[in-house]
Amino acid sequence: MTKKDFISLADFTQSELEQIIALAFKLKKEPHSLIAANKHLAMIFEKSSTRTRISFEVAINQLGGKAVILNTQDMQLGRGETIADTAKILSRYVDLIMIRANKHQDVITLAESADIPVINGLTDFNHPCQLLTDIFTYIEHKGSIKDKLVAWLGDGNNMCNSWLNAALIFGFRLNLAIAKGYYPDQNLLARARAANLVNIYEDAKSAAKDADLITTDTWVSMGDQDSAARKEAFSKFQVTEELMSLAKADAIFMHCLPAHRGEEVTAEVIDGRQSVVFTEAENRLHVQKAIISFLLSNK
Q1: Catalytic residue status for 79
Q2: pLDDT value for 226
Q3: Count of alpha carbons within 13 angstroms of residue 81, beta-carbon side
Q4: List 5, 95, 130, 212, catalytic entry
Q5: How do residues 266-294 score in pLDDT, each as one tens digit?
Q6: Is 217 a catalytic residue?
Q7: Is 256 a catalytic residue?
Q8: Which residues of the chain have pLDDT under 70?
């Protein structure tokens, strides 16, 4: 059987992703499993992490395995060893690799060179573990996301790219309120437009109207340098109670965290009754356990 990697949602069929989601629901109810008994997960971090590190480490532990945590500065990778060589060596020591990387191409190279499954824990291009968690969380609270309206406000970043990928797979509509010069990947945007699944607005109110879900991210992600320019460009896309009132009455709010209250979202929204951000964060654990289980069973 050819090994399967979790690099992008686009690498999976809707049926496969629904299998993972169904397994995540089961694992949320029954947390412990032995599917990863005696298995080891190598976790490589080029970027700092709270949720990704803790959720993956607890996930492999609850599945009966163990995590090996690697900071690139403590590895030969940080001293010039190639990604391909690192992948080949790790393939002889562990059973899976999760990497939180700066460059998406590095994750692709790692996966192509490894004989074991590789999981994308975040890159500059996308964040598939988080996005599948967001789909899971929506289904948990509201049911099927098909034909629903999701409003994304702020930066056309890796999360925005992931929402575009998800819309193409799950068939929901996506309103993007994004400042000029900060648009998402043009290929993904073109595909979503061709499928009549996306609209771009320059004002937040138009994007939020009648939305089933409003979601956003920090205005300045790790690695971004132009923080002053970004804050000015995105200031009119802040998620406020007034903005939430334009969405459907039962709409929910999501944020992948960490959040900056008073910037991309007000405290009243993120800590309010429509927010599901902390359940969303918890669900990273359950969805990633399901991803690990799926990859091991398809290895």
Answers
A1: no
A2: 64
A3: 15
A4: 130
A5: 999 999 999 999 999 999 999 999 999 99
A6: yes
A7: yes
A8: 1, 78, 222-226
Q: How far is CA 162 from CA 64, 65, 90, 129, 170, in A?
A: 30, 29, 28, 10, 12
pTM of the model: 0.96
Please state, in angstroms and rounded to a whole number, the distance separating the CA atoms of residues 280 and 134.
6
Active site (annotated) includes residue 284: yes
In Å, what is the CA distance from 150 to each residue of 26, 45, 176, 177, 294? 26, 31, 9, 11, 27
Which pLDDT does position 175 carry in this prediction? 98
Q: What pLDDT sits at residue 144?
A: 98
| Per-residue exposure over 133-172, b if at least 16 CB sit within 10 Å of its own CB, e if not | bbbbbbbbeeeebeebbbbbbbbbbbbbbbbbbbbbbbeb
- Name the catalytic one among 217, 255, 274, 288: 217
Predicted local distance difference test score (pLDDT) of residue 36: 97
Q: How far apart are the C-alpha atoms of 61 and 63, rounded to whole Å?
A: 5
Whole-number pLDDT of residue 80: 82
Helix axes 158-170, 186-194, angle to 10 degrees: 30
Angle between helices 158-170 and 128-142 (to 10 degrees): 50
Distance between CA atoms of 214 and 207, rounded to whole angstroms? Answer: 9
Catalytic: 32? no
For 151, phi and psi rounded to 5 degrees? -110, 120
Choosing from 127, 173, 255, 286, the catalytic residue is 127
Choice among 5, 51, 95, 100 that is catalytic: 100
What does the pLDDT read at residue 253?
99
Confidence at residue 222, expressed as pLDDT on a 0 to 100 scale: 64
**69 beta partners:** 43
Catalytic annotation present for 19: no
Give the Cα separation of 273 and 252 in Å (integer).
9
